[in-house]
Amino acid sequence: MRYFLPLFLLLFIGCSNNKQEHNAPLPLSASGLLGAWQLEATRISPGSPVDWTEVSDGSRYTFESDRSFDFVSSDDASLGKSGSYEVEENLLTLRYSVQGENVARVYYMNFEDDKLVLQFVGCIESCSERYRRIR
Prior knowledge:
The chain is mainly β. The chain is 8% helix and 46% strand.
């Protein structure tokens, strides 16, 4: 009986509410995504194996801790976009609006040698972009 109270307190303190609210901190799996990333290479396969093709002055993503993102196109500043993002396991979902239409783009996300690699979900061949951290 003398161990009942300490065990009960340990059990009570050890339990927590795992429900995450929208403004809760990002899960640990997404923490590596925070910051600014610049496109440095692409790998687009027409059906045969290809290697990375280097890109100079590539487009940039910035991911914030409040789950917002900004995208700046290196080709055309008017193609930039802002919105929100979600990370679930290895999927990155970007939500934004284009001419009043809501868009959701989904990518497979992973990190290779401190580089962010995004692969378009639904691409039959290899369709990947590699980004380097710029801040």
